[in-house]
Write a structure and sequence with these properties.
Blueprint (H helix, E strand, L loop, with lengths): L5 H9 L7 H15 L7 H26 L7 H26 L1 H4 L3 H4 L2 H22 L8 H13 L20 H14 L6 H14 L4 E3 L9 E4 L6 E3 L9 E5 L3 H13 L15 H20 L15 E5 L2 H14 L15 E5 L3
Antiparallel strand pairs: 1-4, 2-3, 2-4, 5-6
Helix pairs in contact: 1-2, 2-3, 2-4, 3-4, 4-7, 7-8, 7-9, 9-10, 10-12, 11-12
C-alpha cells in the first residue's frame, strides 16, 4: 500500500484536536518527521510547513498536558507513554529545525528568508527545552540532557550576531518575544533549579516564570566578581555552574542574573494579595499552594547563588515515617508564612511554645 502524499499528512496533522491519544500522537510524529527529514529538498515551503505543524503540536500540548501535570507523583504506564511520545516529537522537531539551519544556504536566499534564521534557531532551542522539561516530569535517572546541541545553537546565534534579537516564537503567543539568549538561559536556569524535589506542577510554573524572567538576564564573555555568580562552558557537556576558579577560558560565558531577587519579591507581593504570576506559561491554572512552595525553592536557589555555595539546592530529603507539622488551608498557610517573616528574630527567640491550633502533626509515608 502506497504512503499518503506529504500534503495529506500535513493536513491530517493540522486537523488534529488532541495529542492525548496514541493514534493522534503517531500522526503528529509522522508529519513532523516527514517534514524535517533528510533526503528531500530543503525548501522554504517545507520549512514553513514544519513550523505550522510543530506550532500546532505545541498548542495542543499546552492543553493536553494539564491533566498529566495534575496526576499523582507515581506515573501510570499510559502517562509515561504520553510523556515519551511528547519527547520523541520534540526531538524530531529539533532535529528537523537543525537540518534546515545547516542547509540554510539552499532556502535562505532572500532578505525575508534570512530574517527567519533567528526564529528558526529559537524554535530548535525551544523544542530541545521541551524535551528537557518532559525529562524532568518523568524524573527517571539516566536521561541525558543534549547539552552539546543546546550550546551549539547558542554559539551559532552568538557567532552570527543575533543571540539577543527578539522574535515571536509562535504566532499564537504574540506576547512571548524571546531571543535565542533568553531561551538558552531558560533551559539553563530550569536545569539548575531542578534537583528532583519539584512536582510536575511546580516545574511547569517555574518554566513560565523563567520564560519571562530570563529576558532580563545576560551572558558575558568577561567575568566580573561583582555581577557574575554563574557560568556555563559552551565546550562542555553540562549546564550552568556556580562560578569558581575553574570557570575561565574562551568558551566560558558568565551569567548575570541581578534581577532575580527583585523578581522573587514581585511574585511574593502578588501572592500576598492573592495574585498568581504566570510569566509565559499556564501557571494561573494551578493551585496557589504550588506557587508558594515553588517560590520558597527559588528563594533558596537565589540565596545559594548569592552566597556562592557549591552545593546549590540540596537534594530531596527522604521523610519516610517522620512526623511533620502541616498547616491546612491557604489562608492559614499564607498567614503563618508571612507572620513568621514579619517577626524576624522574634520568631526564633527560644521559649516554651504552646501548640499552634492551626497546625496538625502528620506521619509521612514518603
Amino acid at each position: 500500500m502506497d504512503a499518503p502524499p506529504a500534503s495529506a499528512v500535513l493536513e491530517a496533522a493540522l486537523q488534529l484536536k488532541t495529542v492525548r491519544d496514541a493514534t493522534s500522537r503517531a500522526q503528529m510524529l509522522a508529519a513532523i518527521r516527514g517534514l524535517g527529514q533528510e533526503g528531500a529538498d530543503f525548501t522554504l515551503e517545507r520549512l514553513e510547513a514544519l513550523m505550522r505543524v510543530e506550532e500546532h503540536f505545541q498548542t495542543l500540548l499546552l492543553y493536553d498536558q494539564i491533566d498529566f501535570l495534575r496526576q499523582p507523583a507515581a506515573i501510570s504506564e499510559a502517562d509515561r507513554d504520553f510523556a515519551l511520545s511528547v519527547q520523541r516529537a520534540c526531538l524530531e522537531s529539533a532535529n528537523g529545525y537543525q537540518r534546515f539551519l545547516r542547509s540554510r544556504g539552499a532556502w535562505a536566499t532572500t532578505s525575508a528568508a534570512r530574517q527567519m534564521v533567528p526564529r528558526l534557531t529559537g524554535l530548535a532551542l525551544n523544542a530541545i527545552h521541551c524535551f528537557v522539561k518532559w525529562s524532568c516530569f518523568l524524573n527517571e535517572p539516566g536521561r541525558a540532557t543534549p547539552w552539546k546541541q543546546i550550546h551549539a545553537l547558542y554559539q551559532l546565534a552568538e557567532g552570527e550576531g543575533y543571540a539577543q534579537a527578539p522574535f515571536v516564537l509562535h504566532s499564537a503567543q504574540q506576547a512571548f518575544r524571546p531571543s535565542v539568549q533568553t531561551l538558552y538561559l531558560r533551559t539553563l536556569m530550569l536545569d539548575l533549579l531542578n534537583s528532583g524535589n519539584l512536582s510536575r506542577l511546580q516545574l511547569e510554573i517555574a518554566d513560565g516564570w523563567f520564560g519571562a524572567w530570563c529576558a532580563a538576564y545576560s551572558l558575558d564573555a568577561r567575568h566580573s566578581p561583582r555581577h557574575h555568580q554563574l557560568f556555563v562552558d559552551l565546550a562542555s557537556d553540562s549546564g550552568m555552574h556556580l562560578s569558581g576558579d575553574e570557570s575561565h577560558g574562551s568558551s566560558v560565558r558568565y551569567a548575570r542574573i541581578d534581577g532575580l531577587k527583585a523578581q522573587i519579591e514581585e511574585v511574593r507581593t502578588g501572592l500576598r494579595h492573592g495574585r498568581l504570576f504566570a510569566g509565559h506559561g499556564p501557571g494561573t491554572l494551578f493551585p496557589i499552594e504550588a506557587h508558594v512552595a515553588l517560590l520558597s525553592v527559588i528563594e533558596k536557589l537565589c540565596q545559594s547563588i548569592l552566597a556562592g555555595h557549591e552545593k546549590g539546592i540540596e537534594e530531596r530529603t527522604p521523610l519516610e515515617d517522620r512526623e511533620v507539622e502541616v498547616t491546612l488551608g491557604f489562608d492559614r498557610l499564607v498567614r503563618r508564612m508571612f507572620d513568621h517573616a514579619g517577626r524576624g528574630d522574634e520568631a526564633r527567640a527560644p521559649a516554651a511554645q504552646e501548640p499552634d491550633p492551626e497546625t496538625e502533626r502528620w506521619r509521612v509515608h514518603d
